[in-house]
Amino acid sequence: MKLIIAALKPFKLDEVREALTLIGVRGMMVTEIKGFGLQSGHTEIYRGAEYAVNFVPKLRLEIVVPDALAEQVVDTIARTARTDKIGDGKIFVLDVAQALRVRTGETGDDAI
């Protein structure tokens, strides 16, 4: 199993979720986060004063999938979340040693 962690722009969530559903992803966790990468934040003007915004709002998706589906999930997220502008995000893929569905006791691929 693989844990796929993706940081992406908030307005892309619905489009990414729909694309993942079409390829068979059955669940995901979403967290609102703030961060910065190459863009190092930006400046905004509020009531005539300029402020530095050091952290940009993003969403973090966490998805656990069978090994066979991992590459397709990464490709789908990358293609769907892309805007060709700075700050499109990052995707990380990690190995998952074990998964357990609390309600039924199922483990491994059956738990996801």
UniProtKB/TrEMBL annotation:
Keyword flag Transcription regulation: yes
Transmembrane spans: none
Question: Which keywords fit this entry according to its UniProt record?
Answer: Nucleotide-binding, Phosphoprotein, Transcription, Transcription regulation
Under the heading InterPro entries, the entry gives:
N-reg_PII, N-reg_PII-like_a/b, N-reg_PII/ATP_PRibTrfase_C, N-reg_PII_CS, N-reg_PII_urydylation_site
Per the record, the similarity remark reads:
Belongs to the P(II) protein family.
Oligomeric state and interaction partners are given as: Homotrimer.
Query: Which PANTHER family does its entry note?
Result: NITROGEN REGULATORY PROTEIN P-II (PTHR30115), NITROGEN REGULATORY PROTEIN P-II HOMOLOG (PTHR30115:SF11)
In its UniProt entry, what is this protein called?
Nitrogen regulatory protein P-II
Q: Which organism is it from?
A: Pseudogemmobacter faecipullorum
